[in-house]
Amino acid sequence: MQQIENTTTPITTATALDWYRTMHRIRRFDETIDELFAQGKVHGTTHLYIGEEAVATGVIATLEPGDVITSTHRGHGHNIALGGDIQAMMAELLGRATGYCHGVGGSMHIADQSRGNLGANGIVGAGLPIAVGAALGFAMRHESHLVVAFTGDGALNEGAFHEAANLAAIWRLPVVFVVENNQYGMSGSVKEMFAIGHLADRAAGYGIPATMVDGMDIFSVWETASRAVEAVRKGQGPHLIEAVTYRYKGHSKSDANRYRSRDEIQQWRQRDPIDHLRRYLADQGIDPTELDRIRQEEVQAVAQALQYAEDSPWPEVRMLDDAVYALEEGDHA
Amino acid sequence: MPEMTYAAAVRSAMEWEMAKDPRVFVMGEDIGVYGGAFGVTMGMVDRFGKDRVRDTPIAEEGIVGAGIGAALVGMRPIVEMQFSDFIMNAMDQVVNQAAKIHFMFGGRMSVPLVIRGPAGAGTGAAAQHSQSLEAWFHHVPGLKVVMPAFPDDARGLLLTAIRDPNPVLFYEHKLLYKIKGEVTESDEGVPLGRGLIRRYGTHATVVTYSLMVHRVLEAALQLEQKGWDVEVIDLRSLVPMDIPLVIESVKRTGRLAICHEAVGRGGIGGEIAARILESEAFDYLEAPLLRITGLNTPVPYSPPLESAFMPSVDRIAQSLATWLVHEGVSA
């Protein structure tokens, strides 16, 4: 992986501690979801972000108020990194009335417009044209906001990516495409599903500059994203980042990991993004008990979110009567 | 009231709303200098500029998706499909995204998007450029479907569609673009979900929409000469659909016929029939209902074949007459 940039940028300890907290919150949230599924406490399916925390945390740390993201089916981490409400997320996954979507959406359909999340998406690649449209809206209004379009490696083989990338490029729209290359689209290895070694190379065909980055190293992610965001905000048109990362857990709950070895998973776990950040913080002289305390607080927060969700009521079926169509414009009080 | 073509009426609605609301813009393939494949956007780029009358690449999934994204950040996009058949390339964005965003995100967001485009046969454009696929979208909760038959409705319904906070599919029939009619150039939109009785009658109710309104009205004149008097309802929008108007009419006439150009199988006609059979109008029905529709084939090319595919005035008149005779309705 010698292509991957690895530079060090001075980051304040307070910022690094914030990242550490966010990454633990994401991990503990998804670990809890994993446990709940194993216990049969939630139904449907879910896609866990465990292992990829540095990407969402590092990229979203570069955004400003008013910027927006589009997310993917593996979207819990993005919403948490944006400061999303984990109680409402947990309640949504448990199908409760207090959930983000009142229980209508579930794991793959969480949006939080107030924090700039235009929505997770159950359809691979489908968020990309939507991201481009949001950027078009900002550009037409001459606003300086930008859009981060998170996507997996698999979506790069969807037509939606092609159309979205071209539109963003010809109209020089403020979009940062962040490709979370976690090595597999479900069971399909990037080695089998792409005839190119680096997914970032696709961007050249659209005239979009691209950068590869070690997605397990939050400092590299942050620095790369910062540069991309700065260029995009200046009006230089879209940028694509390929963040090389790994999902520790299966694609979804049906996954028995038949397509990869335990050794491979273990090797990636040795490059764990949270451990990496913890080592950095320890080197900065942060007391390990302080780091343990932060982790413990997030474990507590997620446990409280679960308690909140379990104590929340189920939605009333009659809510469906008014749920399909938005009211006329004047009706919004 | 000025007289204008259906195409000009569609343009008038877009221009009216764009002049009034800076959030409104239109994008699509060849809609700028070219003026659109059917000339609907002719001249708009001169008035509003390339930013708001935006030529796009041939990328229907991309541009419908971009319309959704722009809507989510507060714009009011109108996306033109050069032929409505090309929506097939954007089905995921229409059905899985636009239709569901308000619902699946718990009402937090809505998608004020209009997708408009030419539908229907009769121009020799053959199987991939002549379809009427409104039933597909009628079937998807979260979408609205509008199919005006007259210039004044085209303008008024499009104004309302642009102002609607939901995704609206707005179908313009190619054979209607050049028809002329008086159009009120006011700010008042025509509400969605209100049909109109275009002709009052006593022997039967014929429910229809889009181009077929004109053909059914002509057929009604033929029947009138034979002594039958049929009522003609123009639905104008399919979602929402003015079923109460149909119920009220059928209760008076006792007979229901439905006419649409789209393929009969799985078409809107079946839905209208079911809604009436479920309603109190059932007790008033004196005859089996009749559907007059496009054939259950793709749209063929050769003129005699294409004409046979579409319900013609003669086919409509004949079908209705045969039905009325069979049911013993004396003229």
From TrEMBL, chain A:
GO terms for biological process: pyruvate decarboxylation to acetyl-CoA. Pfam families: E1_dh. One of its GO terms (molecular function) is pyruvate dehydrogenase (acetyl-transferring) activity. The keyword Lipid biosynthesis does not apply. Residues 22-317 form the Dehydrogenase E1 component domain. Its cofactor is thiamine diphosphate. It comes from the Bacteria. SUPFAM superfamilies: Thiamin diphosphate-binding fold (THDP-binding). Keywords: Oxidoreductase, Pyruvate, Thiamine pyrophosphate. The keyword Cytoplasm does not apply. This is Pyruvate dehydrogenase. It comes from Sulfobacillus benefaciens.
Automatic annotation (TrEMBL), chain B:
The keyword Oxidoreductase applies. It comes from the Bacteria. Its cofactor is thiamine diphosphate. Keywords: Oxidoreductase, Thiamine pyrophosphate. The keyword Oxidoreductase applies. Residues 4-179 form the Transketolase-like pyrimidine-binding domain. InterPro entries: THDP-binding, Transketo_C/PFOR_II, Transketolase-like_Pyr-bd, Transketolase_C. GO terms for molecular function: oxidoreductase activity. This is Alpha-ketoacid dehydrogenase subunit beta.
